[in-house]
Amino acid sequence: MTAFVILPGIDGSDDVHWQSRWEQSWGDSAVRIVPASWSEPELDDWVKAVQRAYDDALGRDDDVVLVAHSLGCWAAAAWFAAAGSATAALLVAPPDTQHPGFPSDRAGTFQTVATQPLPCPSLLIASTNDPYCTTARATTFANAWKADCHLIDNAGHLNSTSNLGDWPFGQTLLNELLANLPT
């Protein structure tokens, strides 16, 4: 049984977000990060929240997979850069922190995260019409992180307003990532 660490984006993931639905279906196998603030995120606080959630998840299973959405992708990248290690990482819809639409007034500390290779098998999923990240930038992030990249046509920011429900296609991609892990 694999344990999952859930890393939502700014303002968290509401009840209809695919991430919350997956978390609910995984039950005790899932641990959501608990930062001091979802709406005024500070990178150091979020990285510490990832570590706490990872430690909790590791107590549940030796295989721990990070499932990050939006700003959570950058928290994951910063956690990995600080010597974090996991079995795998699913990175969905990372925002371009240099994009004019990025909320630098609320999440400016995330703009300093460098893109460097991640220490585990990873998959980045992005949409071709994400308002917070172009496909070119998403591909650049995937290449820098040494993550496989899967682009989905016209699915917005892959969040609640994308109406993905349980997002079975995302689950399929996650299952493929896990099935191809080295033994």
UniProtKB/TrEMBL annotation:
Residues forming coiled coils: none
Keywords, sorted A to Z: Hydrolase
InterPro entries in the cross-refs: AB_hydrolase_fold, RBBP9/YdeN
One matching Pfam family: Ser_hydrolase
Signal peptide region: none
Origin: domain of life: Bacteria
Keyword Hydrolase among UniProt keywords: yes
Protein name as catalogued: Serine hydrolase family protein
Gene source species: Kribbella speibonae
Lineage of the species this protein comes from: Bacteria, Bacillati, Actinomycetota, Actinomycetes, Propionibacteriales
